[in-house]
Amino acid sequence: MTTIHAAPSTMLRPALDQKPLPVMKLDPGNGPKTASNAQGLPVMKMAPGARSVGPNANGLPVMKMGPALANASPTVNGLPIMQIDPSGETETGTVQSSTDGDGSFTRTTSMVDGHKVVDTSVSYTDGKTRSHERSVTLNPDGSKTVTVTNQNGKTKTITESATKNSDGSVSIAKQVTKANGDVTTISGTVMKLDGETQKHLTETNADGKTETLDVTSSHTGNIAVHHRTGTGYDGQSIDKSSTWTTYA
Questions:
Q1: 242 and 158 within one domain
Q2: CA 144 from chain center: how many Å?
Q3: Tally of domains within the chain
């Protein structure tokens, strides 16, 4: 689960003989009005079911969203964290693939036992179907552990660490352990520039063979485009692309 900590407030607490700072509430039919929290800090509240803000244990504002959307709650130190509602969020859309043709997809994101889980199913017009479940765990040292289970029930585990570089890029190192125990190592850099993500990767499989890849991804509105080029383990050229359009 990704934790987002708010920066400590620099606002001074009012003296005891001062009036508490105002709080805005938006209530249907009553119009805006003000109130104060336990420590006199401003808190905004909105109608039930809409986005709302309330104080955490330290009296600091915490952003909350409707039950069907993302929500936030204070951690043990009183700082707000962002969570995805357990009921999940589902997206649908279309895909155009240079290798598999046209199709449609469904993607559901949820939180299960503190892990972010993404289920993706794709059906192509030629009858092919593909699906996988991806579970992501953020480790205390900043690394990630990803478990991917495909439609046949086979699971692979990916451990990934990242280091920021002075030029703005990120160096990554991954180890992929497949269901049969074979291990592939991946290293390279990731750069985000002008709304585009560029990855330059080198992969070495269990047989010691190497594959090099350049992967470019861009998002424009609800359209994501991915392009992959390079040289495969067999020495053949790789040139694949796909376009994913999410319904509004």
A1: yes
A2: 12
A3: 2
CB burial string 33-44: b at 16+ within 10 A, e below:
eeebbeebbbbe
Q: Let me know whether 76 and 97 are in one domain.
A: no
Same-domain status, 133 and 198: yes
Do 211 and 202 form a contact (C-beta atoms < 8 A)? yes
Handedness of CA 38, 42, 48, 52 (dihedral sign): negative
The residue range of the domain holding 37 is 23-83
Q: Which residues contact 181 (CB under 8 A, 6 or more apart)?
A: none
The residues that bridge with 109 in the sheet, in sequence order, are: 89, 118
CATH of the domain at 218: 2.40.160.40
User: CA dist 95 to 92, 157, 167, Å?
Assistant: 10, 26, 34
Task: Quote the pTM value.
Answer: 0.63
Of the residues 60, 83, 106, the one at which a domain ends? 83
Give domain status of residue 13, yes or no: no
Q: What is the pLDDT of residues 31-74, one digit of tens each?
A: 444 445 555 555 444 444 444 444 555 555 444 444 333 444 44
Sign of CA dihedral 83, 87, 89, 94: positive
pLDDT tens-digit series, residues 63-81:
444 433 344 444 444 444 4
